[in-house]
Amino acid sequence: MNALISVSDKTGIVEFAQALHGLGIRLISTGGTAKLLADQGLPVTEAAELTGFPEMLDGRVKTLHPMVHGGLLARRDLPEHMAALAKHGIQTIDLLIVNLYPFEATVAKPGCTLEDAIENIDIGGPAMVRSAAKNWKDVGVLTDASQYAGVLEELKAHGKLSDKLRFALSVAAFNRISNYDGAISDFLSRIQDDGSHSLFGGQANGRFVKLQELRYGENPHQQAAFYRDLYPAPGSLVTATQLQGKELSYNNIADADAAWECVKSFTTPACVIVKHANPCGVAVGADPLEAYSKAFQTDPTSAFGGIIALNRTLDAAAAQAISKQFVEVLMAPGFTAEALEVFKSKVNVRILQIALPPGGKTDWDNGRNLMDIKRVGSGLLMQTADNHELTLADLKVVTTKQPSPAELQDLLFAWKVAKYVKSNAIVFCKNGMTMGVGAGQMSRLDSARIASIKAGHANLSLAGTVVASDAFFPFRDGLDVVVDAGATCVAQPGGSMRDQEVIDAANERGVAMVFTGVRHFRH
Q1: Does the annotation mark 276 as catalytic?
Q2: What DSSP assignment string belongs to 326-352?
Q3: 134 burial class (0-12, 13-18, 19+ CB within 10 angstroms)?
């Protein structure tokens, strides 16, 4: 049995090669890998010796040769293939161990030039991988160090690889090549005529890994599966560990993502309760119990069967309070043993543990998507993700009345919540707690009225609340509705041709108004 080894990432390769040699497998290798193995005392045949042709063009050409590809592609069950090998003195290659030039890592470095990128495009490696993967019935192809142990286990037990393992390795190999080519296409198609890089390339190559098949989609007659990005952001939902409960459904995952994205945006202890992709209760507090208790007060009716997310470790006190309501999914960065014990008898509650993102200079470091994608008929809409964060310095007071320091803090809180509410969004808040949420209506007036109605049903007074509107008030009537409900301070983007009419109305009603200068539509 012959094994050809040519790896860029040499993690674990010496130990693997030693194990192969111990099983009587002949080692063939290229360039730096061959030198490394030889330096470790392993007998290794250089690829140049196999092909009878030296490496050339700075290593660009070394394995693109019939002595290599004939050995990989020949079908052992076809006499004419084996006769052709014998005629030309070609030996079969039964194992191929290849990982590719680090293109993805290279282009991820700041200041990567086109020349750097081009020189890290592997040619011979993918060609060999494709040959071996195509001929999977006779050749085992390894493209990642994580595969070494499983291959050795079968070789030691049976002296060969099973059809099942060879096919799985082949599929993994074609997936690797697909991802590699996709990364190259993404990078090169973004380069403009002047050498700059567009955010949107000439071709979009989505690369996702299936996490699980789901029982059904949004509705029982739809089929569904859950995928993650090839390289997921830290602290995102796809990194969650399920500690308990039934299998997540399609709708569970969609709602859980909405809750988690919202709660992780807060730096103080916070709780978010989501129903049908909209926050129905959000609050901050001194601890998880206070945050949950305040969030639940906003809309106890909608919270029934909701998704709950916290950004602090869930302790026993908060767990006891939450256990009194019907909850579908409960998420937190951690759970005390006592908290888990509370839910032990509630076996259907899905409990997810998700590490908060470490935080950093980039959106990705903060666990955020860099792009948002929406499927339309036979196409995609792609945009940069709405990762804008509002600060006090961004607020422009446009009324005679000035907001109080407490109102300004509540405005920032309300604005953060409104970002995660479906448009048209109207959010009443007070003391770090949502008091009424109006979501997803065709009319902003209706969203404001619904928020008021919900507050009334929850026995919450809107007197002295602040309001965030995700888009501008096109007329003064929207402002009048929220002021009539009790709001004393309003945040809105501004930008309407009737801004002055709305400002005059705010002054007339004696309320404060600030412009944020940014809109948060969420469709």
Answers
A1: yes
A2: -EEEEEES-B-HHHHHHTTT-TTSEEE
A3: middle
Q: Could you say which DSSP state residue 61 is in?
A: B
Residue of 191, 217, 214 whose CA lies nearest to 202: 191
Model confidence band, residue 302 (pLDDT cutoffs 50, 70, 90): very high
Which DSSP category does 520 fall into?
-
Catalytic-role residue among 10, 81, 246, 276: 276
3-class secondary structure, 198 = coil
- pLDDT the model gives residue 170: 97
Q: Which long-range contacts (CB under 8 A, 24 or more apart) does 257-261 make?
A: 258/307, 258/420, 259/307, 259/308, 259/309, 259/329, 259/331, 260/236, 260/309, 260/331, 260/354, 261/237, 261/368, 261/420
Beta carbons of 403 and 397 less than 8 angstroms apart: yes
CB 470 within 8 A of CB 424: yes
DSSP states of 248-317 as a string?
A: PPHHHHHHHHHHHHHHTT-SSSEEEEEETTEEEEEEE-SSHHHHHHHHHHH-HHHHTTEEEEESS-B-HH
424: preceding bond cis by omega (within 30 degrees) = yes
**What is the reported pTM?**
0.89
Buried b (16+ CB within 10 A) or exposed e, 221-252: eeebebeeeeebbebbbbbbeeebbeebbbbb
Say which amino acid occupies 283. Answer: A
Structural element, H or E, at residue 125? helix 124-134
Please tell me the distance from the alpha carbon of residue 307 to that of residue 279, in angstroms, as a whole number.
Answer: 9
The length of the chain is 523
Q: Looking at per-residue confidence, does 32 or 301 come out higher?
A: 301
Indicate left, alpha or beta for 396 from its phi (over 0: left) and psi (-120 to 50: alpha).
beta
Q: Which of 10, 134, 246, 401 is catalytic?
A: 134
Q: For residue range 37-68, what is the model confidence (pLDDT) as tens digits?
A: 999 999 998 888 787 777 767 767 777 788 88
pLDDT band, residue 298 (cuts 50/70/90): very high
Instruction: Judge whether 457 counts as a catalytic residue.
Output: no
Give which of 273, 300, 249, 269 is closest to 458, Cα–Cα.
300
- pLDDT tens digits for range 146-180: 999 999 999 999 999 999 999 999 999 999 999 99
Map tokens 């036979």 to a residue.
378
